[in-house]
């Protein structure tokens, strides 16, 4: 009597969704990304189906993948003997098992359409995992993700028109990141290692992940997680290791492999001789190490803050939950008592209008007299039925984990000996996060995103696009470094 019914509360929530402030929040407020993310996934489903049905498929590596797996399925366990039209098999055992499974699902690799729809599923699943991270971190406005994701021609091409193994490796990586965010260490390590078993580029995250383990789990816990990662590789590679271990290790984890200059996106401006020179490769490795030395201490500080705040969460969250549970129990008791009183009132004869007016005025008088110091009552009757709920949004702590992981991977991409077109999937979904982790203007951030997309969409790459891609990468990394440095300096002064 006097409280809102469930229908009224539901109606209030629905009407609130059509207010200008709520609608605006769906576009610009990172905290309201959930509904926009749902719409984005639906839009991507439609777009990918249209791409598959209307854009011609282009053969690049799929046939070679099927040939390599066909050799394995025919009983060949010597990695040096597993080959396709594009050359020898150069991916770990996880790749072989997954694409052998696809070999059966697609009629020995002949039914390309089925494969494309499977990759639509892979793309949408990864997108959901990516958006979950963005929802938790509350870092990037919804409109940024909508524009960036929907307009990327190259990413849609990589996933559903080329059928590369890179998206599968990246999918496992994002599964792992989501498990790490939820503090599910064992599952995170398992899926991270599964990603490595599909393609080695996932190892670019390893330096950050190692210190994340060390900061949160200590030395013993780190050894356990590394053991899990290692055992996954051993178990998956066991058939090949038992038959010809040298051939497997050299073929699947060949760190000295020389890439074909024909497909390079980032070093078109170099002569082939310089591009294939070992000194050039060692120089890039040295730059990679130097950048890690600069950024890893910053990452460790982020990880330590993450660890401390997670500890606070463990201490505080049970108290919050207990308080909310007690409030819920008390609210339920009040509602039960009110039902009994209403039932008793219904059994009595109806009051006259004068009697109702008298009781209402008497209730108001009692409320006023109950206020200390003669203060007016500001509590509305409708609030009496509303359950008080206490909460602290700890999800935002994920920023302290995600940013270092994305940075370290980005550094690895920057220093790669060559970037082929499918490698764009390695870091595409992290670019909005990195750009919104610096102090550049919104227009400049979008300019960087557009230029990077243009560089990846230019085929074949040119001197200009290769050089421009490096300029964009350096600009992104410098902006992140500058902001992190300022934030850490501010924290040190406060301490």
Automatic annotation (TrEMBL):
Keyword Glycosyltransferase: yes
Protein location: Endoplasmic reticulum membrane
TM spans (from-to): 26-51, 89-105, 117-135, 192-214, 226-248, 280-300, 400-419, 439-456, 463-481
Annotated EC: 2.4.1.258
Top-level taxonomic group: Eukaryota
Enzyme class (EC, first level): transferase
Pathway assigned to this chain's UniProt record: Protein modification; protein glycosylation
Membrane topology: Multi-pass membrane protein
Keyword Nucleotide-binding listed: no
UniProt cross-references to Pfam families, sorted A to Z: ALG3
GO CC, one annotated term: endoplasmic reticulum membrane
Biased composition, class Basic residues, residue ranges: 330-342
Region spans: Disordered: 323-346
Keywords: Endoplasmic reticulum, Glycosyltransferase, Membrane, Transferase, Transmembrane, Transmembrane helix
Listed PANTHER family: DOL-P-MAN:MAN(5)GLCNAC(2)-PP-DOL ALPHA-1,3-MANNOSYLTRANSFERASE (PTHR12646:SF0), NOT56 - RELATED (PTHR12646)
Identification of the protein by name: dolichyl-P-Man:Man5GlcNAc2-PP-dolichol alpha-1,3-mannosyltransferase
